[in-house]
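The protein record filed below.
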Amino acid sequence: MGKMAGSLPGAGVSHSLQSPPGALSPDLESRMAIAAGPSTVSQRLALRFLRLAREAESVGDLRQAITHRLHAVRHDCTSRSVIEYAGFLATTGDRSRAIELLEQEVSHPRHRSTGRPCPRCARALALLHRESRDHREAKRWLLRAAAAEMNSWQAGDATLSAHQLYCEALLAMDAGETTRSRALCNAARVSAEGFELSLVIHQLARLDSHDGNSESAIRHLLEAARIARVWGAHHHYATCIFDLGRTLNSLGRTSTAIECYRIASLRFARVGSTRLAAVAARWLHQSRALARMPAASPELN
């Protein structure tokens, strides 16, 4: 299974994306924010704009998604909106701007009191440098993220976060340490929730494919895709479908693989990931062409 930069069920999959479980209505969000006080008002507004941005992305309205994300960054007193906006920039082809934005966030005054970067910012930078194949920088930022996490441990804490373990699993696989990568994924799966759980399970699928266990890879991809879909992780949902198509194709299940490529191409295009949309479309056209070719005559074998 090939690595795609980071975000099912074949034919008959619903194309609708659900909001994360427990999402509040806009009116209720506003009333709760006003009752909570100024700083919480700002944070509630940031969360609302993030939700609106995801909804806009789900229907392919990228201009509105950008507007909502910029509003979220302005109101957010944490790093969350900046990290999400950087991820959006990366998936739409502006990785250098995403890195620049995160480096600015890392040096923000709100992080100076600890003298360490926000762990999530540092991990986001690690992943972007990994996608740029700068593994030295990726490892450096991941180490800084781990140090920042450990610096904030309370009494009794002795475990890195699920997302930290997942990121370390990616770098371990890149280094050919597949056994360590699987061990890190299994450890991450214990505490991972929501979208992060989808990421961890997707990495397990990659390891399955590497080990030649296609059936296990398919099960993991289906599970990862289902979770991504429920949580509105549009880009990752498309990545899971694409990888599912490639795995099915390797097993000769061409018709279902073709449907996966078709859905992945549409999904990538909808969220503005034009390069990956083109990659999925190319696999779709090639698979359709091969499926139309007549079988070789037995006399020629």
